[in-house]
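Researcher: Structure prediction, please.
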Amino acid sequence: MILISPTTLATSTQNSSIIGPDGYQNSSIIGPDGYQNSSIIGPDGYQNSSITGSYAYITSSDTDTVAIIDTLTDNVTNIVDTETFTSTDIRNGGDSPFGVAVTPNGTEVYVTNTNSGTVSVIDKVTNSVVAIVDVKGYARGIAVNPTGTKVYVASDFMDYDSERATHGIVSEIDTATKTVTATIKVGVSPYGVAVSPNGTEVYVVNRDSSTISIVDTTTKKFKATIPVGDGDYYPYNNEGPTGVAIAPDGKNLYVTRDVYGNAAVFVINTTTETITAIIKVGTEPNGIAVNSDGTKVYVANSGSSTVSVIDTSTNNVTATVNVGKGPYGIAVTPDGTKVYTTNYRDNTVSVIDTSTNTVINTVNAGSRPYSFGQFIGPAPANLILPVANFSSNVTEGYVPFCVQFRDLSENATSVSWDFENDGVINSTDRNPIHEYIVPGNYTVNLTAINENGTNSTFATINALDKSVPVSHWEFHPEEPVSGDILYINGSAFPGNKVDVFATFEKTVPVSMGRYEYSLEDIVIPEGSNNSYKVEAQGAKNLNVRVKMILWVTKSSKASGNTATVSQSNVPPGNYKMRIDGNAGEGVSEVNLKVTASQETNIDSNGNFNYSYNTTAIPPGIFKIKIGNITKEITIKPEKIEQSAPVLQ
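Model: Predicted structure follows.
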């Protein structure tokens, strides 16, 4: 049978950021309380996390997929590959899907894969396979208990020489762990499975034994056998019982069987375990379903391509509906208004209006659709998922500093905090305080949890290092010309001082074993701790002559192939500088590197400003380092004004 499940399909998406007018993502929003909100909640204060509906899950045996049909629109909304995982069995993970069952809360779909002896578990929120359970044998019928804690799967085992089934089992699967917790031997070639409304008994139809096996779910043992028909079975005539459904009150079982072409539904009293009625239906009946109030039974007749409608009060067929070719699985929507059949011979699904007993829609659904099995349950309430959200009193600071976090999550029974996004849960408090000691950019992860799932959101905390006080700086003009004043502004730790280093390099030729270079109009601005350093690579020695009023000379001999002269506490003013010396043996040019530095103050708001006169700097690459940030600036040659041509 095909399973129609009332379900909750989560479709919400949490907005974790806002895109600003500049096209960049703003990672935070500051609320009126001065806290940073890491996500946006709708105007009602809640995130719309679910949409309620019912869905039909159609197994396609040839393509190893499950098509999902929205019963409101009869459109296929998704297709799930049952072979996503690899089984521990030597065969494929999800080969030839056949039976279907859905948990009562509508969160998971269990699909039997006949040729691989496995069960694929589909998460209904993500519409993806999240586990595959190995049950061995040829997995066929499947059903879930009323609490959704156990799933029961019928499997048979074949003798390949005789092509006959030898024995069968029912595997009990724990839905929490996705593992087989019990295996019970039943009759030969088990097919349909049904669970009593109180969950204490499992009924398994054994096709080759022409029996029903009753399993006690408490003891997990075989309990009794009910014969169905005369026990004769001819596999090539598709005879023997296959489908089973149980009345909502648990008093009657309805079993399909075709014996010598005499197709019928057997009505069995579950108290006396005896047959109370035999109702003739179309040929080769397989799937069978009972509506939610127990007044109607619907039978899929594969041989006659019809659906028989049975009135349970009289046990009479009141209507016969022509459907697609080879209907196999069948199910009723929770409200009882529609019946769906899977037609494996023409690859369609027929939709029947139960008020008129007519086909109102036909849906294409894969190749050889079966969806054998039955699960009918009440429509669950909307699946309320948690919505993670939090704020912080600050988003950055200089280490060490503490951050107060506030949990603003909705629908959460608990939360967990990972303050450094390293997979380690640091706190489960609602409003924790965390101290950041080591500088760095930290991603804070809050996970909100409830019984239906989890939801996470993120924000960034920037832990700054006082020893590297500058956070950023800019300069203008962006394309300076030699002689321009370069204006610099930036941000740093308030109240500190920061050093500005300006460096350029110049290669000068060597003539007669000597090199020399001159700088004019050097402007040393007002400030503290002014200094300079000259390095001559390839030199034997270095002389640096500086003049504001009188020439002052400092000299040094090279260490290795580099000579260095430096001077600190240089007073502000306008200077000239002459650099010369003897070059090393065989050196044709000497590389000069000139660095000037000055200390500048940072105001109480963490801002600083600085200016630099480029008159003395030769065109080319000029480097400025402030704090730990270095930028290269290209100084262009001074513009030359062209005079107007003289007319002759």
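Model: The longest strand covers residues 497-509.
Researcher: Thanks, that helps.
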